[in-house]
Structures are given as C-alpha cells and as structure tokens.
Amino acid sequence: MTAPHPPTQGHAPACSGVNRNGAPCRSAIVAKNGWCLQHDPDRAGERAAAYRAGGYGRSNVRRSLKALPVGLMTVLDLLHQALREVHDGGLEPGRASAMARLASAIVQVHTAGEFGERLAAIERQIGIGGRG
Q: Closest Cα to residue 33, out of 7, 64, 69, 59?
C-alpha cells in the first residue's frame, strides 16, 4: 500500500490503495485517513469479519440448512450426535450405521412426498391431472 495522497483540486477524494492489478483504487468512499475499507490497514479485522459473514451467508451448507424441513433437522441433529458418540467410543458403529440407514429412509419418504406435491402443483398449473 502507498501512503495516502491528498485529493486534487476539484475532485472527490479517492482511496490511496492500489488494486491487485497495480492500478490505483478508484473508490470514492474514503475515510478521513485516505483509505477505503478494502485497503485501510487499520481496519483489517473489520474486513476479515465482513469476509467471514459474507462467505457464511452464501455457503452451500447455509443454503441447504435453510431449505431443510424442520422434521429433517431433528434427524440431522441425531446423526451429528451419533457421529460424536461413535468418535468418543460411547456408541457402537453398527448402531450408528443403523441410524444412518433409517435416516436415509426418512429422507427418501420425505423427498417422494415433496416430489408428489410439486408434480400435483405443476399439473394444476397446466390444467391436467385429476388430483386436487
């Protein structure tokens, strides 16, 4: 990073930072010290927190948990607990495997029901099918 430069006469202040490609940062949103959030060395912690929050909100895990029905959230919690217990030696791997197979069956039943509901809705929209 370079030292902050004063704004030129008649122009809005721009960030004193340099982008990865070597070009000057063109952000006009600048703090009093002459840096934007992206380049301000004193705001590195704030920048890191923003990266973490943004990445978590867009992560595949976060999206899949939002879409998970409440009933399946309980199954997921039980499987996480079983995994910890197997790891710690408190649950036999065979019992955990049986739990996983049962959980798989629950998910399959749920998926089939959801598929049926979606199909019925599509059929209603296009005016076919005798289901109501």
A: 7
- Return the SS3 of 20: coil
Note the pLDDT tens digit of each residue in 96-116: 999 999 999 988 998 898 889
Of 109, 101, 103, nearest to 76 (Cα)?
103
- Are 50 and 10 in contact, with CB atoms under 8 Å apart? no
Q: How many CB atoms lie within 10 A of CB 63?
A: 11
Q: 64 is written with which tokens?
A: 């899949």
Residue 66 has pLDDT above 90, yes or no: no
Residues in the chain: 132
Confirm if 1 and 17 have CB atoms less than 8 A apart: yes
Cα separation, 110 vs 68, whole angstroms: 11
Q: Is 51 helix (H, G, I), strand (E, B) or coil?
A: helix
Burial (CB < 10 A; 0-12, 13-18, 19+), residue 91, is middle
CB atoms inside a 10 Å sphere around CB 86: 17
Q: Which two tokens stand for residue 41?
A: 């060395």
